[in-house]
């Protein structure tokens, strides 16, 4: 979507990199969410639901019913993948709605890439934030506790280490989502 591949001597190279209206809209949405999340630690519903609706309508207007179906599938994939971490207390609801909204714009294939790149960015940033705040050792112990708890009691939240119960530093997850989106747009 971001570039047209070319075959040269058996090696695939990028011959063109273009920013589409979908890229511009998603980067604007994610950038706005990032600024809001960093300032207020919230992502407004008007942004996430509005972006999802706009993505669905845009895809329908530009590609018909088939594109609308792909947009709905992208929204669903984004929501489903982030639903488990949200249910376990590891992410806020705004993060789930933001990923889903971006998935509506990007479609299912790029939504999967977005989730993967976001996960990597979030993990790296979480380690960095934990290290800066002197919390890295505690964070590693919390992961061990979580995995042990899941092994014994099944997958469920551990209240002491959820977003609500933890005293550790918080990461505004719209920032890793923005980085994941930039990687998706750039590398796809």
What would you say this structure looks like, in words?
By secondary structure, the chain is mainly alpha-helical. It has one domain. It contains 6 helices and 2 strands, in the order ββαααααα. The chain has a two-stranded antiparallel ribbon with strand order 1-2. Helix 2 crosses helix 3 (93-106), helix 2 crosses helix 4 and helix 4 (108-132) packs across helix 6 (174-187). The radius of gyration is 18 Å and the shape is elongated.
**Main sheet attributes: strand count, strand direction, barrel closure:** 2 strands, antiparallel
Uncertain ranges: 1-9, 11-15
- Helix share bin: over 70%
How many strands in all?
A: 2
Structural class: mainly alpha
Q: Strand portion, in percent?
A: 5-15%
Compute the CA-based radius of gyration.
18 Å
What is the global morphology?
Answer: elongated
What is the N-to-C order of secondary-structure elements (H for helix, E for strand)? EEHHHHHH
Number of domains: 1
Mean pLDDT: 89
Terminal CA distance reads 6 Å
């Amino acid at each position: 979507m971001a570039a047209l591949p070319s075959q040269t001597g058996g090696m695939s190279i990028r011959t063109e990199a273009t920013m589409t209206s979908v890229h511009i809209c998603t980067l604007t949405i994610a950038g706005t969410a990032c600024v809001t999340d960093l300032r207020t630690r919230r992502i407004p519903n008007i942004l996430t639901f509005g972006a999802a609706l706009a993505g669905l309508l845009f895809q329908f207007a530009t590609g018909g019913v088939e594109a609308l179906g792909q947009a709905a599938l992208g929204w669903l994939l984004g929501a489903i993948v982030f639903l488990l971490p949200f249910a376990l207390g590891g992410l806020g609801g705004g993060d789930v709605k933001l990923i889903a909204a971006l998935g509506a714009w990007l479609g299912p294939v790029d939504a999967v890439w977005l989730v993967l790149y976001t996960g990597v960015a979030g993990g790296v940033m979480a380690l960095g934030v934990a290290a800066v705040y002197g919390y890295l050792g505690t964070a590693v112990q919390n992961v061990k506790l979580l995995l042990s708890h899941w092994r014994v009691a099944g997958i469920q939240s551990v209240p002491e280490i959820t977003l609500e119960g933890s005293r550790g530093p918080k990461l505004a997850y719209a920032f890793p989502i923005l980085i994941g989106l930039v990687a998706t747009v750039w590398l796809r």
